[in-house]
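Input structure tokens:
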């Protein structure tokens, strides 16, 4: 019988279920999850030469928890990665319809620019994108319109999303789009019009209670915006799923005001689909907010506070936490206001463009985005590499002045991966810990 070993990409976390010691297994490359009695898992790992239940071993091997002795998992990862980053089953794009903004957020990673997408550029962009859809024939197309403040150029959203929606509808491809907004310009009539052409949700940026939010996210005239946003959200509550992305400074205590914001949302009976908490990340140039990810216990606290108030769990609980970068995926596009194809929506106008909607992809420039070289400790040792892949390239650019650099937050993502595994295990009954092994003869 061939010898097996635990895969490097298997993360095993002890949990207790009704008094029984259970091991929750998560495979970071395949996404497989299973519960197994601790004694059985120990039995497998202690002596792989001892005969075991072939069906159980097959299951663990098929899902990647075990690999044959001598298997080169670095090569395995590289092959998996190529399939992963070139998977066009879902095609996604982010569209900067404007770089203008009516807010002046203190920590914004982008400098406002007096640029917006013209109808001519939008048509050229959609022709290019529709050709990609035609060529790749994805099962689903998901777009996100943003800025700046995208509702300063709402007509372009309506025209562009409409073209994409009707084309996909004619080919039997599922289409949807979202909008990332500061929330100050939302109107029910506008949302209703957009729903007709595939709008499935809005993501609204917040920063805590009125006191903190108005300080960090004022209007361009230094006016208060919190109350305006809350009134707008109340007006569209129930009309469209609302997601809140709440940013916090991990180097200050302002995050303690966020539960107050959650209570206010509840008091106003605003239906919120999910709430995501993200630390304010460093930006290039002058930067008073440079604490970055900070203490991961802040994020855990905020997630727990949201849960206490009955808010739906955020996206971080629905899927394993990930630090993968959009620039690594060939099935994801970022369209700038002038039609440039850029690797990240956090770039300034036209920065590091590797194509244009009127000319197509420059494959030489695109190839340079794929040259990222992972250090040996990542490539040959890290168990969470598949959910990180080197991390955020923008943050690598900020800190190392190298877009192909590494943005490593191993301790934080390992902590939240184990938290995710425990949360998922608690939702599964002990009866599902059904991988058993025969005792040795």
């Amino acid at each position: 019988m061939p010898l097996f070993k635990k895969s490097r990409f298997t993360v095993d976390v002890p949990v207790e279920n009704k008094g029984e010691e259970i091991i929750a297994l998560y495979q970071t490359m395949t996404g497989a999850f299973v519960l197994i009695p601790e004694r059985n898992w120990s039995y497998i790992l202690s002596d792989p030469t001892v005969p075991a239940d072939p069906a159980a071993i097959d299951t663990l091997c098929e899902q990647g928890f075990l690999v044959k002795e001598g298997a080169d998992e670095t090569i395995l990862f590289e092959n998996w990665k190529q399939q992963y980053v070139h998977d066009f089953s879902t095609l996604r794009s982010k569209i900067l319809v404007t770089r203008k903004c009516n807010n002046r957020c203190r920590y914004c990673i982008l400098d406002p620019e007096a640029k917006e997408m013209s109808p001519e550029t939008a048509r050229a962009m959609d022709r290019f994108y529709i050709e990609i859809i035609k060529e790749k024939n994805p099962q689903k197309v998901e777009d996100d319109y943003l800025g700046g403040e995208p509702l300063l150029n709402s007509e372009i959203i309506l025209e562009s999303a409409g073209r994409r929606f009707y084309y996909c509808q004619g080919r039997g491809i599922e289409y949807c789009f979202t909008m990332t907004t500061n929330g100050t310009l939302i109107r029910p009539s506008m949302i209703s019009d957009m729903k007709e052409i595939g709008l499935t949700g809005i993501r609204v940026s917040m920063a805590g209670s009125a006191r903190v939010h108005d300080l960090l996210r004022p209007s361009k005239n230094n006016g208060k915006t919190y109350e305006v946003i809350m009134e707008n959200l109340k007006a569209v509550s129930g009309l469209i799923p609302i997601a809140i992305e709440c940013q916090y400074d991990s180097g200050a205590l302002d995050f303690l005001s966020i539960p107050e914001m959650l209570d206010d949302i509840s008091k106003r009976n605003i239906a919120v689909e999910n709430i995501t908490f993200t630390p304010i990340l460093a930006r290039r140039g002058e930067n008073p907010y440079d604490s970055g990810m900070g203490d991961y216990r802040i994020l855990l606290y905020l997630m727990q506070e949201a849960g206490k108030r009955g808010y739906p769990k955020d996206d971080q609980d629905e899927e394993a936490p990930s630090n993968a970068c959009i620039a690594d995926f060939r099935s994801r596009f970022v369209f700038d206001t002038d039609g440039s194809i850029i690797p990240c929506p956090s770039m300034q106008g036209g920065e590091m463009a590797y194509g244009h909607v009127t000319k197509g992809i420059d494959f030489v420039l695109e190839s340079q985005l794929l040259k990222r070289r992972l250090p040996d400790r990542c490539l040959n040792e890290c168990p969470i590499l598949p959910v990180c892949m080197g991390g955020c390239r923008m943050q690598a650019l900020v800190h190392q002045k190298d877009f192909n650099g590494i943005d490593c937050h191993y301790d934080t993502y390992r902590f939240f991966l184990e938290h995710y595994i425990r949360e998922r295990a608690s939702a599964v009954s002990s009866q599902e810990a059904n991988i058993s092994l025969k005792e040795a003869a």
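The CA atoms of residues 391 and 407 lie 5 Å apart. The domain at 89-334 is CATH 3.20.20.70 (TIM Barrel).
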